[in-house]
Amino acid sequence: MSRNTRSNLSLALAFLMLATGCQPTQPFFFHEDGDLSHYVDVSTDIEFPDVEEPVLDEVTQAQRPLSLKNMDDYEMWDLTLEEATRITMCNSQVMRQLGGRVATSAPDTISRTIVNAAQVTTTYDPALVETGNGQSFGSQFDGVGVESALSEFDAQLQGSMVWQRNDRPVNFGSAFGTFFAQDFQQDLGDFNMGVTKNTADGSTWGFRNATTYDSNNNGNRQTPSDWETNFEAFFNQPLLQGRGTQYNRIAGPYSFDQYAANAPNSFDGVMIARIRTDLTLADFEGGIRNLMRDVEQAYWELYFAYRDLDARKQGLESARGTWQRLNLLYLNELARASDESQAKTQFFQFRAQVEQALTEVFRAEARLRYIMGLSVSDGRLIRPIDEPVIARVDFDWAATSVEALSRRVEVRKQKWQIKRRELELIAARNHLLPRLDAVGRYRWVGAGDELIDYNAPTGMGRFAEGTSAFQSLTSGDFQEWELGLQLAIPIGFRRQLDGVRHVQLLLARERAVLQDLELEVSHQLGDAFRDIDLNYQLAQTQFNAQVAAEREVASVKPAVEQGLLNINVLLDAQRRKAEAESAYYRSIVDYNLAILEVHYRKGSLLDYNGVYLAEGPWPGKAYFDALRRARQRDASMYLDYGFTRPNVMSRGPVSQSMGQPGTIPADTYFQGEVVPRGEPTPAGEPQETVQPTDTGAALMPVSPVQPAGYMETATPRSGNLQNAGYQAPTPQGRITYAASTPHEGQANHAPGPPAAGAGTGGGSFR
Asked: Dmax of the chain from CA atoms?
C-alpha cells in the first residue's frame, strides 16, 4: 500500500470517527414496547382551565339581535327611566360602563371588563378589602383589613412538648471512674405552655408554665429522676419608641427585636386598614354613580333615536309624495325628467336615512340593554315613555359649588388619602425616638420526685423519694424576679429620618392633588353650567328653525305645484324640515343630559335618582352577638380617659339625601298657575308659538321659560310638571343598593323588570 493511499485512508477514518462522535445516540432499553403516548415535546401549551361555571340565561337564551334583516318578530316594551334604573340595580354585581355617545356598538363598551377585569368595580370590593389578610399579593385587594389588623392584638396561646433520649460516653479520668458513670444515659422531657398578648399601648404581657422531667444515671443524685416546674408572669413596656395607643393603632405592634434589627415596619394598623375600607367604599360609590349616569344617558339616547327615526320617516313620506306626483306628471309629459330624477334621488336619500336611523334605534336599544344587564335580544324592543324636561332649570352657582366640594366622591376620597398620610407621618416621627423598654419577670419554682402527689411527705429533702414538684411550688419557698431596661439606638437614625421625609413628601403631594382636584371640580361644574344654558338656548333656536321649516314647506309646496318655483326649492325645504326636527330633539336630549351632568359634577346624582347605598345584610347570628356585646357594654362601668388617641379622624356618615343647599322651599318652586302636561310654563308673550305636531312633540316657546323664583332641586326628570309642591323622594321610594358583606352569597340575575317591592342581585327595594 502506497504512502498516499495510507494517508487518504487515515483521513477518511478520522473524518468518520469525528462525524460519528458529533451525533447523539439514544440508549437501549429492555422491554421497550414503543408506546410514547405520554411523551410531550413542548413545555407550555394553550389549555382550558378545569372550571365549570353556569352561564347566564341572558347569554345562552339570547335571540338574534334586531337588524334591518331581522325586525319582524318583536313586541314593544314601554319602559320608564325609573324601571330602567331599578332593573340596572338588580343586575349590576359588576359595574358596567358605556363609552361616550360616539361608541355605537356593544363590543366597544365591554372591552374594559374583558381586558382588565381586575380594575372593574363590583359589589364585592368593599368586603374584599374589609377581609384582606395581606396574602393577595399582586392584587388590588392586597393589604390587611380591619379584622386582620385587630388580630395583632389577639392573645396567642403557645405550647410545646418534647421528649429526648440521650446516651453518650463521658470522658472521666480513672480517679473519678468509681464515682461517675462512664456512659451518660438520660430521659429528658420538656413541656411549655403560655399565653401572650399585645396591648393597644404597645406593651406585651404574658403568663407561662415550664415543666421538665429528668431521669439519668448520675450516681450523685438523691433520686434517679426528678420533676421541675415553674410559673412565670412577664411584661415588656416601651417607654419611648412604640409607646402609646396612637402609634400602635396606626402602625401596629413593633417589637424590640424588630427595632434593634433595624427592620422596617409597614404601617398597617387598624386605623390605616379602616381608611383603606373607606377608600374602597368611595370607589364603590363612584362606580354606582357612573352606572346611574350611563343608564340615564343610554335611556335618553334611545329616546332621541326614536325621535330621529320619526323625523326621517316624515321626510321619507314627504319625499315619496313629491316623487309620486312628479313621476305621474312625467309619465303624462307634464314635468321634466330632471325634476322627477331629483325627487327620486331625494326619496332614496331619505330612505337610506330611515334605514340608518332604524339601525341606530336597534344599537341604542342594545346599549341600554347592556347597561341594564339584559340579553342582547329577547323578542322585545324597548321604547322609552318618559318625556324629557323642557322647563328652564337654574342652579345657584355659589350653593352648587359648595355642594360639589362637599359631596363629590373624588374629593372625599382624596381627603381620606390626606388623613392616611397624616397618620403615617405621626407613626414615622415616632421612629425617631430611641427604643427603651422596661422589662420584668416574676417566677414561682417547684421541684420534687413526682410532679403531682397530694400525699407527698413533708419535712424531707426537696428531691426525696415521694416529694411533689407542685407541692414545693405552692409552698412559695422558691421565687425569682427580674426587672430591667432594654435600649436600642440606631446611630444617626438614617432610615428613620428618610422615612419621615418620605411621608412628608407624600402628604405634600396629596394636598397638592386635592387642591388641583377641587380646581378641576370647579371647572367641570362650570362647563356643565354652560352646557345647560347652551342647550336650552339651542333648543329654542332649533324650535324656531323647525317652525320656520314647516312654514317654508307649507308656503313652497303650492308655489311648486303651480309651477311658480323650481322643484329644487321644495326638495331642499323638505330636507331642512326633517333636519330641523331631528336637531330640535337632539338639543332637547342634550339639555336633559346637561342637567344630568350638573348633578353628576356636584355629587348629587344618586340622590337625584333616588338611589340609597347601604351595607348588605349579615347573618342573624352576627346581629345577635352584636346586640349581646352592646348590652354587655351598656351594663359595664364607663371610664372617662379624657381623650382618645389618635384624635377624631371621621366626621360621621355621609348624608345621602342632603337636598339642594340654598334653594327655595318646595312650596314656592312655582309661582302662578300650574301648567298642564305637555305645555310650557308661560313667561310673557312669546314671539312665536305653534300647536304640537302630529308626532306629539312638545314644542318650546321662543322666549325663555323660567318661572319666577324657580330653582331646580332633586326632582324627577319627567317633563310632566303636575305638582308644584313636589318633594324629594322619600326613603320608601328609594332604590337601596347594598354592597356585599363578607358573609353574602352570590346574588341572582334579574332577566327582566322586577316585581314592585322585590329585589334581586345586589339591590333591594324599600
From this structure: 150
